[in-house]
Backbone:
C-alpha cells in the first residue's frame, strides 16, 4: 500500500512538472502571439549601421532556399524577425541588400533550440562587405560629369545637378529591369539623402531676410559702413570679414551669408568696386571662423554628437588655431586684392547719393518686430541644441511668426525664395547620395584608415588634408558622416589619439576645405547665387583660383596649432 502511494505521488509530481513546463511554453508563445523573434544588428566594414537590409529566415540548400519570414533593418541597423514555433533544423539567416555582398549565416544550435521552445534570441552582430557592381562605376562617372559641367560652366549649376540626379534615377528605373546590376537607388531612397535641414533653413531665412530688407536696414548698414570706413577698403575688408566670421561661429554659415551678402553688394556698389572683392574673403572667413564652435558648421554638429565633444571643447581646442588661420586669411586677402584695395577709386556720386538717401529706416515698426523675432531666433539657434531643435525648425518658426505679425504680401514673400538655389541643393544631395549609396565614399574612407597605421602625426596630417581636399569636390556632410567611424577606430588604436585630436583634424579639414571650390560648402553656393542675381557671377574657375590658396594657408595654420596643442 505504501509503495502504491509513493508511486502515485511520484507520478503526480511528474505530471505537475510536465504541466507547468508546457504552460510556460504556451505562455511564451501567447506573449509573442504564437511567434518567437530573432533580434540583431547589421553594420558595414566601417562599423556604420546599414539600413534597408533584407534579413530572411530561410531553409533548404543554397540553390533552392525557402523563405520562412523576413524583415528590413532600420536606420540603426537593427531588425526583428518573426519566427514560427516549428523551426526546421537547417534554418539559416540570409542577409541581402543592393551594393553589399549577400551573406548566409547558420543559427547557433543553442539559439535554434530556444526558438523551437518559443523563446526569442539575439543574433550576433553581422558585418556586410561592399560589392562593386556596374552601378558603382556609373554613379561615380555621373558624379564626375556633374562636377565637370559645373566647373566648366557648360551648363548652369542647377541644370547640371538636376540632369545628374535625373540620369541616376533613369538608369535605376529603366536599366535595372534588364540588367539588375545597374540599380543605384529608387526615388524614395534618393530623397532620403537630401538634407532637408539645409533646404528649409535656407527657405525660412530667405523669407525673414525679405521682410527685414523692406525695412531699409540693409541700406542703413551700407551707408554707415561706408561712413565708418571712410571709403578705405583696406580697413573695411578685415572688418567685414571679422563680422562675418564671428556671426558664423554662432549661426549657420548659410544663414550668415544670407544676411551679409546683400549688405556687401550695397557697400561695393556705393564704392564703385566689384562686390566680389568683399564677398569672396567674407565667405572664406565664414567657413574658417565657424569651425571654432559646436554650432558653427553642420560638420561640427555631426562630429560633436558622434565624438561626445562639447561646445567648450571646440571653443578651447580650436579657437587659437582658427585665430591664426583668420590672420593668415586676412593677409592673403590683402595681397590678393591689393590693387583694388589700394587704388583710389572715387565712388559713384549718384550711387553714393542714393546710398545716403536710402540710408534711413523706412519702416521702423516692422524693423522693431523683426528685431524681436530675430533675437528669439538667435537664442534658439544658440541654445536650441539642448532640446534637439534643428536650425531649420528655428528658421521656419521665425519666418512664420514674422509673417503672421507683420502680414506682408504673402505672394511677394514666397517669390523672394530663390527656388533655383533650392533645386540645385536638392539635386546635388541626390547626386552625392548616389556615390554614398554605391560605396565610393566608404571606399575612400577605408583607404585612409589603411594608410595611417598607428602613427599619430601621420594620422593628423592625412586626416586633415585628405578631408580638406575631398571636401572641395564632395559635400562635406556625407563625407564627414562616412569618416566618423574610421576616426573613432583610429582614436582607439593610435597612441595619443585618445585626446580626440583626430576629430578636430576632421573638423578643420571638412570645414576649411570648403573654401577650395565653389561647391565645397553650402555658404559658397548661396553667396554665388545672390551675387549672380545682382549681376556679378562667381564662376567655378574664379572661386577655385582664389579659394585653393586660401585653403592651403588656413588649413596649414590651423593644423600647426593642433600640433602645438596636442
Residues:
Amino acid at each position: 500500500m505504501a509503495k502504491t502511494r509513493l508511486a502515485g505521488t511520484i507520478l503526480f509530481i511528474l505530471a505537475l512538472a510536465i504541466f507547468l513546463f508546457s504552460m510556460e511554453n504556451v505562455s511564451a508563445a501567447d506573449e509573442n502571439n504564437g511567434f518567437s523573434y530573432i533580434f540583431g544588428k547589421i553594420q558595414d566594414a566601417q562599423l556604420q549601421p546599414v539600413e534597408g537590409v533584407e534579413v530572411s529566415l530561410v531553409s533548404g540548400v543554397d540553390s533552392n532556399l525557402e523563405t520562412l519570414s523576413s524583415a528590413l533593418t532600420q536606420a540603426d541597423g537593427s531588425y526583428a524577425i518573426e519566427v514560427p514555433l516549428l523551426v526546421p533544423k537547417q534554418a539559416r539567416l540570409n542577409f541581402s541588400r543592393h551594393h553589399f555582398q549577400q551573406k548566409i549565416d547558420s543559427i547557433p544550435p543553442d539559439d535554434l533550440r530556444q526558438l523551437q521552445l518559443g523563446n526569442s534570441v539575439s543574433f550576433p552582430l553581422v558585418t556586410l562587405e561592399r560589392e562593386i557592381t556596374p552601378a558603382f562605376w556609373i554613379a561615380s562617372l555621373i558624379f564626375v560629369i556633374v562636377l565637370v559641367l559645373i566647373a566648366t560652366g557648360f551648363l548652369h549649376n542647377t541644370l547640371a545637378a538636376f540632369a545628374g540626379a535625373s540620369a541616376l534615377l533613369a538608369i535605376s528605373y529603366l536599366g535595372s529591369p534588364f540588367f539588375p546590376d545597374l540599380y543605384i537607388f529608387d526615388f524614395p531612397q534618393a530623397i532620403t539623402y537630401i538634407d532637408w535641414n539645409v533646404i528649409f533653413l535656407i527657405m525660412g531665412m530667405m523669407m525673414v531676410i525679405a521682410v527685414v530688407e523692406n525695412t531699409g536696414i540693409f541700406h542703413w548698414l551700407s551707408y554707415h559702413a561706408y561712413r565708418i570706413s571712410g571709403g578705405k577698403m583696406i580697413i573695411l575688408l578685415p572688418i567685414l570679414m571679422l563680422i562675418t566670421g564671428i556671426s558664423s561661429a554662432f549661426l549657420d554659415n548659410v544663414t550668415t551669408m544670407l544676411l551679409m551678402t546683400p549688405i556687401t553688394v550695397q557697400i561695393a556698389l556705393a564704392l564703385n568696386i566689384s562686390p566680389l572683392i568683399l564677398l569672396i574673403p567674407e565667405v572664406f572667413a565664414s567657413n574658417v571662423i565657424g569651425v571654432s564652435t559646436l554650432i558653427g558648421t553642420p560638420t561640427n554638429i555631426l562630429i560633436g554628437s558622434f565624438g561626445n565633444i562639447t561646445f567648450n571643447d571646440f571653443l578651447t581646442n580650436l579657437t587659437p588655431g582658427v585665430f591664426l588661420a583668420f590672420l593668415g586669411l586676412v593677409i592673403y586677402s590683402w595681397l590678393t586684392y591689393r590693387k583694388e584695395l589700394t587704388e583710389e577709386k572715387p565712388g559713384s556720386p549718384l550711387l553714393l547719393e542714393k546710398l545716403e538717401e536710402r540710408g534711413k529706416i523706412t519702416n521702423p515698426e516692422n524693423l522693431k518686430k523683426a528685431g524681436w523675432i530675430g533675437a528669439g531666433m538667435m537664442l534658439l539657434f544658440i541654445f536650441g541644441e539642448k532640446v534637439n531643435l534643428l536650425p531649420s525648425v528655428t528658421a521656419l518658426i521665425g519666418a512664420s511668426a514674422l509673417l503672421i505679425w507683420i502680414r506682408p504680401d504673402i505672394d511677394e514673400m514666397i517669390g523672394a525664395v530663390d527656388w533655383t538655389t533650392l533645386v540645385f541643393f536638392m539635386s546635388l544631395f541626390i547626386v552625392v547620395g548616389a556615390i554614398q549609396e554605391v560605396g565610393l565614399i566608404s571606399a575612400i574612407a577605408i583607404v585612409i584608415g589603411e594608410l595611417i597605421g598607428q602613427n599619430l602625426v601621420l594620422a593628423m596630417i592625412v586626416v586633415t588634408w585628405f578631408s580638406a581636399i575631398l571636401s572641395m569636390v564632395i559635400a562635406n556632410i556625407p563625407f564627414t558622416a562616412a569618416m566618423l567611424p574610421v576616426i573613432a577606430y583610429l582614436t582607439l588604436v593610435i597612441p595619443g589619439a585618445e585626446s580626440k585630436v583626430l576629430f578636430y583634424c576632421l573638423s578643420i579639414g571638412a570645414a576649411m576645405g570648403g573654401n577650395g571650390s565653389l561647391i565645397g560648402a553650402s555658404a559658397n553656393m548661396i553667396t554665388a547665387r545672390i551675387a549672380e542675381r545682382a549681376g556679378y557671377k562667381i564662376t567655378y574657375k574664379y572661386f577655385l583660383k582664389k579659394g585653393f590658396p586660401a585653403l592651403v594657408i588656413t588649413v596649414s595654420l590651423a593644423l600647426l596649432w593642433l600640433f602645438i596643442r596636442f
